[in-house]
């Protein structure tokens, strides 16, 4: 009896030890094990920062010695900088569509701003990343459709908000806002009167009209919404996609007093323009510092780009800069489509300046490749995966790049095709050909001297036009 009692006691003790051992593993060790496994498997975060109407020459890292962009210049020194990076169009909405889908907007029927909205049949990078466990957010200028159907019914465009296209969170405007005190009209402009409420567009946060924290620099207003999104995702150990589509330096471009004072030697108009860019630069630095403080900088890919070249009115007066390039926004020349671009992933993409010819349509397929996505498009893409091209600064692209936008009612129909050396463009009935290696300023039209090359490029452009027509007219969408 005594032996049995002792044996039974030992069994009870062993059971208690086993119980508490299992409990200790479940409540203390298992979460750490799972966190380590999830952390090891966690894919990199992605941030796409897009300026609005920022010219190739409007940043220090592209040679502007007057403007103060220390944060972008520092980022450029630590990342991959593109010398030949192109917006898919010299106008905002078509370029934005290409960033999200890897497809030129001509395939989507988005020929210019305010003329349509992104179709739900298009597959966006946000939708793909949601399927791969990402949380997704967009902050700033949407410009791919209405965001409030009842409050802003217009004679152009249609309702197509970001939450129809894969974004979990949003803090967006339909279109342009003043870059300082964004809800207040700085001077008589469009349908707005100085000092009155800015009525052309407004901010919605997750479908709700925003009324608080809208004073001061607009880039700061936007970044105040980005930072909590990033913090929340990091706290939950979930990879995130953040599209930060800033309004700067699109008109009405306004800078606060402290930023204007940095450029007191210039005209008032130039003070506003340069000051707003410096304020934007400050907020980009704020975000990068925050990523470092949170310990996730090395796990985050940042791609900075502009949606097109600088607006014509400040460019013509020497306020904005396309660098040495001809043209500006609304033109298919280099100044309208060649834009500043930086791709950063610390420890994974080496600092480099590359002459590789790239475009906004390349962003989606390249980013998906960088995160090892299994996504395969079932519809034609205009962009390519550039990951194999990013190590050699002299790598050349095979194939062609295409650019286009239209406003046929006032006879705007601009298209261009380029290979690594030659660029053929057509604007209405005018045809031109340039050798960009010898003449990047596009000062010498050689179409008469290189008739065969022009014929080749014109033929390829015709094939592409047929392909885009079929895409937007039904071959890529369900009916």
TrEMBL record:
A GO molecular-function annotation: steryl-sulfatase activity
Family label: Belongs to the sulfatase family.
Keywords: Calcium, Hydrolase, Membrane, Metal-binding, Transmembrane, Transmembrane helix
Protein name listed in UniProt: Steryl-sulfatase
Main EC class the enzyme belongs to: hydrolase
PROSITE patterns: SULFATASE_1
EC number: 3.1.6.2
TM spans (from-to): 12-30
Start and end residues of each Sulfatase N-terminal domain: 44-372
């Amino acid at each position: 009896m005594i032996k049995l009692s002792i044996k039974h006691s030992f069994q009870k003790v062993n059971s208690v030890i086993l119980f508490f051992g299992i409990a200790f593993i479940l409540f203390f060790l298992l979460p750490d094990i799972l966190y380590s496994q999830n952390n090891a498997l966690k894919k990199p975060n992605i941030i796409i920062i897009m300026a609005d109407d920022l010219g190739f020459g409007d940043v220090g890292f592209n040679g502007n010695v007057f403007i103060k962009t220390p944060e972008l210049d520092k980022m450029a020194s630590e990342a991959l900088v593109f010398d030949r990076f192109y917006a898919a169009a010299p106008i905002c909405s078509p370029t934005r569509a290409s960033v999200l889908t890897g497809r030129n907007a001509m395939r989507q029927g988005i020929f210019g701003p305010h003329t349509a909205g992104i179709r739900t049949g298009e597959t966006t990078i946000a939708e793909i990343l949601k399927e791969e466990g990402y949380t997704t957010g967009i902050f700033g200028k949407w410009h791919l459709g209405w965001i409030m159907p009842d409050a802003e019914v217009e004679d152009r465009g249609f309702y197509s908000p970001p939450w129809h296209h894969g974004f979990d969170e949003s803090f967006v405007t339909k279109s342009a806002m003043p870059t300082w005190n964004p809800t207040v009209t700085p001077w008589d402009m469009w349908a707005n009167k100085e000092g009155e409420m800015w009525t052309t567009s407004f901010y919605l946060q997750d479908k709700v009209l925003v009324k608080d924290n809208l004073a001061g620099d607009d880039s700061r207003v936007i970044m105040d919404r980005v930072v909590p999104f990033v913090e929340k995702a990091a706290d939950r150990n979930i990879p995130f996609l953040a599209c930060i589509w800033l309004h700067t330096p699109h008109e009405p471009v306004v800078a606060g007093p402290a930023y204007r004072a940095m450029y007191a030697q210039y005209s008032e108009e130039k003070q506003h323009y340069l000051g707003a860019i410096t304020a934007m630069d400050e907020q980009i630095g704020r975000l990068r510092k925050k990523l470092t403080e949170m310990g996730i900088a090395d796990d985050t890919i940042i791609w900075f780009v502009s949606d097109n070249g600088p607006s014509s009115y400040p460019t013509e007066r020497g306020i904005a800069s396309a660098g040495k390039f001809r043209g500006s926004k609304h033109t298919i020349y280099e100044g309208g489509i060649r834009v500043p671009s930086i791709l950063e992933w610390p420890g994974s993409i080496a600092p480099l300046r590359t002459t590789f010819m790239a475009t906004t349509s390349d962003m989606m397929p390249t980013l998906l490749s960088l995160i090892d996505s299994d996504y395969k498009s079932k519809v034609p893409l205009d962009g390519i995966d550039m990951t194999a091209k990013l190590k050699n600064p002299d790598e050349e692209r095979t194939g062609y790049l295409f650019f286009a936008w239209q406003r046929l009612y006032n006879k705007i129909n601009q298209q261009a095709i380029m290979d690594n050396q030659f660029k053929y463009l057509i604007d209405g009935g005018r045809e031109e050909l340039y050798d960009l290696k010898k003449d990047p300023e596009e000062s010498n039209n050689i179409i008469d001297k290189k008739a065969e090359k022009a014929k080749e490029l014109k033929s390829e452009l015709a094939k592409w036009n047929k392909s885009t027509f079929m895409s937007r007219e039904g071959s890529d969408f369900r009916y």
